[in-house]
Every structure is written in structure tokens, then in C-alpha cells.
Amino acid sequence: MAEDRPKHGLEIAYQLTATELLDAMARRFRARVALEGAVAEVHLAKQIAELHQRGVVVEYKEHDLDNYPDFTVVIGSGTAVRIEVKNIRNEPYTRGGSVIAYKVETQKTRVSQDDRTSRFYGVDQFDILAVCLGKLGRDWRQFLFIRASDLARHEQYPHKLAVMQRVPIVGEVSRSASPWHTSLDELLTNWE
Questions:
Q1: How, if at all, do strands 164-167 and 143-147 pair?
Q2: Which residue, 36, 37, 46, 66, has fewest beta-carbon neighbours within 10 Å?
Q3: Three-state DSSP class for 166?
């Protein structure tokens, strides 16, 4: 029985069905990693669109460019805030067999031949890191947020971010001393 829906542009471009395309991605690790990155970005875009509807965000743009953050949002004060999206890593920090924190990798995929530090993010390349927690509980809508200025610095290059960042267990974020936030709304509303 033929499907009644129109074919997606990718089905036409690659001469495969949607199921064949999804199966191809499911069988390939790197394709799944790329897909998970896109999934996190789409879910954050939905949150930003909702904040836009509520007036917390005046305008926003998505970017798909090398060396540029994933989103720029403009808040009520007219300030542009750049947001980078990353997924939590599969392997957490542990002690005595217990998970004590999660990890997120803040390093780019490619390195410039002219600058061996180019794979590391500069501390001023984005303003907020949005960490998708989808791999933990399979709720890809859940994020933690932190100002880039609160992230750990690289030991050898203090103007760059450390490759691995500690991400707290979600229940520990509510502590007042934590720089992490469970709500982008909260972080943007208190932006200075």
C-alpha cells in the first residue's frame, strides 16, 4: 500500500524512503551523534520560540555556521546573547561507583592547521552554554544552562575553555551557589 503523504525533500534527494534514511542513521555512530546535536538544537529552538511568544526574547536567530554559536537571542534590554548547544556525554564523573557529576565536551570538531588551539572554544565565543540532558533520561527537552564566564578554563590556555566541563546532577542545581540554571527564562530574565 502506497503512503498518502508527500515525500520529504531528503527522500527525493537521496532516492530513499524516510524509514531507509532513519535506518541508515541509526546504524552509523557518527550520523547518530550529528542527529543528536540537531535534535538538541531543535528542542532549544522550541524553548526560545516560546520565550519569544512570551516577550522574554525580543528576537532570535538560528545559525548553522562554523565558528559561530547556534543561536543569538535579543532580550528586552536590546542585549544580544549568544547560545551554544551541546549534548551531555555518555560517561559521567564517578567516585566509588556512584555518579557525582555529568560531563559536557566544549571543544570543536575541527582544528585549523595554522592554530593548534583553534579546536578549543574561546571564552568569548558564546555567552551561554545550553547542555541537553536527553541522553540521561531520554527527555530531549531538558537542558541545563550556564554563563560561559562561569565555565572552567583550559589549564594551558586561559583565554580558552577547558575541553571537559562538569555538569551537576539536576537536583543539585537548585542550590543557590550553583551557576547552573534549569531554565533559560530565569537566566535571561536576570541577565546583566
A1: unpaired
A2: 66
A3: strand
Closest CA to 86 of 120, 125, 123, 41: 41
Where helices occur in 29-106 by DSSP H, the ranges are 29-53
Whose CA is closest to 54, among 191, 192, 186? 186
Q: What Cα–Cα distance (Å) separates residue 12 from each residue in 8, 21, 22, 31? A: 7, 11, 14, 19
**Sign of the C-alpha dihedral, residues 142, 144, 145, 148?**
negative
Residue 19, Cβ density class (10 Å: 0-12 exposed, 13-18 middle, ≥19 buried): exposed
pTM: 0.89
In the chain, the N- to C-terminal Cα span, in Å, equals 58
CB contact set of 182 (below 8 Å; sequence gap of 6+): 143, 144, 145, 170, 173, 174
CA distance 187 to 52: 14
pLDDT at site 190: 87
Q: Could you give the CA distance from residue 43 to residue 129 in angstroms, rounded to a whole number?
A: 14
Averaged pLDDT, 111-129: 85
pLDDT tier at 73 (50, 70, 90 boundaries)? Answer: very high
Q: Which residues contact 118 (CB under 8 A, 6 or more apart)?
A: 108, 111, 112
